[in-house]
Design brief:
Layout: H1 2-10, H2 14-33, H3 36-46, H4 50-76, H5 79-103, H6 106-133, H7 141-154, H8 157-169, H9 175-195, H10 205-224, H11 230-244, H12 265-282, H13 287-293, H14 299-315
Helix pairs in contact: 2-7, 2-8, 2-9, 3-9, 3-13, 4-6, 4-12, 5-6, 5-9, 8-14, 10-11
Organism: Aphanomyces astaci
Transmembrane segments: 20-45, 51-70, 82-102, 148-169, 175-199, 267-291
Protein name: Major facilitator superfamily (MFS) profile domain-containing protein
Length: 316
């Protein structure tokens, strides 16, 4: 069965494979460095709930500010170039985060997660656009669903690893234990950041299709040059004009859902991130502290809750 899965994986489009690989590494890392362990670490370090909300708010604010220029860059420049820039920024974020975890310096932690907010705003539009362009139109439901399930499955790996660590080395909210878990989670995400340097716009399905269409037009034009009659010359000129002035795709301006269409996607993503990260700063980020302080749950018990939640999402 494993061999069959490997064959199916290699049968996928190049950029689709890389997207799955990136998701496997980095989503498992994010389940540690962005969720319950981080909240517990900040609370133990400062003895206050306020910095937990500050970190989440900083991520959301920076991500909101960078979303529009990042989306413009994804449209204006090659997506693989944007992802390489995101990869460099991600490695810088990882280095700052590791330094902040080890030193316990809150100002450095704020800087690190501000950089992460910029990273997510730059990486997400380029990755999603290249992922979609690497799948034929009308066949994206399966790969999109697979990616969503994969993200939820690997999202349980971080909490599971944390449970194992706390079970072996002591199930208590100690600063040293939380530092080790956070550093380990950050190291797991580094291979995912390295994957960003290998995406390739030229291997995307949609780009290959457009290139092949242009090539066929050019070849047809060269063949028509053999026809020296006035009609042949006229046909050659028409082919050249078609290749130089391709009409815009109708779907770019059409409304596909009531008054909304593809041109509204950047605004929808903007509003989604704004609501999600501000809402998380007011509620979800404090769930681990609520369970810790009110119910007296240990780190492994809190992590167990965060294993059950994505597992139920996948099953249901």
């Amino acid at each position: 069965m494993l061999g069959r899965l490997v064959k199916q994986y290699y049968a996928l489009e190049y950029n689709v494979r890389l997207t799955y690989l990136y998701s496997a590494f980095f989503c498992s890392s994010c389940s540690i460095i962005l969720d319950q362990v981080l909240a517990g670490y900040i609370y133990v370090l400062t003895g206050s709930n306020e910095p937990v909300g500050m970190v989440t708010g900083i991520i959301g604010l920076v991500r909101m500010l960078v979303t529009f220029p990042a989306g413009y860059a994804s449209d204006r420049f090659r997506r693989d170039t944007v992802l390489k820039f995101a990869g460099v920024l991600g490695l810088i974020c990882a280095a700052i985060s590791l330094s902040a975890y080890i030193s316990g310096h809150m100002l450095l932690l704020y800087v690190a997660y501000a950089c992460w907010g910029g990273y997510f705003a730059i990486q997400r539009p380029a990755t999603e656009a290249l992922f979609a362009d690497s799948i034929p139109n009308g066949q994206r439901e399966g790969p999109m669903t697979t990616k969503y399930i994969l993200m939820n499955v690997v999202g349980t790996l971080g909490p599971i690893a944390s449970i194992v660590f706390f079970y072996i080395y002591g199930d208590s909210w100690s600063l040293s234990g939380l530092q080790i878990v956070l550093c380990g989670g950050m190291i797991v995400g580094i291979p995912g950041l390295a994957v960003l340097f290998f995406f390739n716009d030229d291997l995307a399905y949609e780009n290959n299709r457009r290139a092949n269409n242009r090539l066929s037009i050019i070849e047809d034009g060269e063949l028509s040059d053999l026809d020296v009659t006035p009609r042949g010359k006229e046909r050659s000129l028409l082919l050249q004009n078609d290749s130089d002035n391709e009409p815009p795709e109708l779907w770019e301006t059409a409304n596909t859902f009531y008054c909304l269409g593809p041109r509204h996607i950047p605004f929808i993503l903007f509003v989604t991130d704004f609501i999600m990260y501000n809402g998380a700063g007011l509620s979800i980020s404090f769930f681990p502290l609520f369970f810790q302080n009110v119910y007296g749950l240990t780190p492994s018990q809190v992590n167990l809750l965060f294993v059950i939640q994505p597992a139920l999402v996948v099953l249901l």
